[in-house]
Amino acid sequence: MPQSSKPTYYSLLGLHPSASVIDIRRAYRQLSKLYHPDTTDLPTAIATPKFQQINEAYATLSHPESRLSYDLKIGYSRFGVIQPLSDLNHPVSRSHDWSKSAYLDASDRPLSSGEIFALFMLVLTFVGCLLLAVAIGLTRGEAAFQTHLLQLTAFVQQQITHASQLITPMIIGLTHCTNELSCVSTQIRYFSLL
Q: Does the structure show a pLDDT above 50 at 39?
């Protein structure tokens, strides 16, 4: 790594160039609390330039593309040189340490307060929609059931009235039968009406 009079962004944050994004963020937060002009006990003439340098370092190192170009600028490579295998019949297995990766895995970091609030609002909206659908279903469903019940009751009453109109003359006719032959002809006549 070529040395220059100006310290590297990594040395400003107190880190090695192979530090993970999480380590960079942690170091930045710790140092920004220490050197922030509004919260530090240091004189403003010392705290402000140091805070600006820390912000510049974090802005460069927190983005993978700008970090890669900065690493190339200072002469650091995160990628090892590929060495030929000593024995091709027995390859050497090396486990990769993913904690040194420059890319932040979404499962590695906690949710921010804004993301938590957005998820809360999403869940709240979903639950509200479900409750509204259930309430509408219960109120309209009950009214629809009552309307259907009234229609069914009216239909049954019509059928009973119609059946009674058909059966009543038959019963009256059967009660007035004097002989068997007239009763049979009356029954046949009324059953044919049904």
A: yes
Cβ proximity of 57 and 76 under 8 Å? no
Degrees (nearest 5) of the Cα angle 34, 73, 20?
50
pLDDT 10s digits, 75-119: 776 665 555 555 555 555 555 555 555 445 545 567 788 888 998
pLDDT tens string 61-72:
888 888 888 888
Sign of CA dihedral 127, 133, 139, 142: negative
Can you give the chain as a three-state secondary structure string?
CCCCCCCCHHHHHCCCCCCCHHHHHHHHHHHHHHHCCCCCCCCHHHHHHHHHHHHHHHHHHCCHHHHHHHHHHHCCCCCCCCCCCCCCCCCCCCCCCHHHCCCCCHHHCCCCHHHHHHHHHHHHHHHHHHHHHHHHHHHHHHHHHHHHHHHHHHHHHHHHHHHHHHHHHHHHHHHCCCCHHHHHHHHHHHHHHC
> Residue 181 corresponds to which tokens in the numbers above?
């032959």
Could you give the CA distance from residue 144 to residue 149 in angstroms, rounded to a whole number? 8
Backbone φ/ψ region at 111: left (φ over 0), alpha (ψ -120 to 50), beta: beta
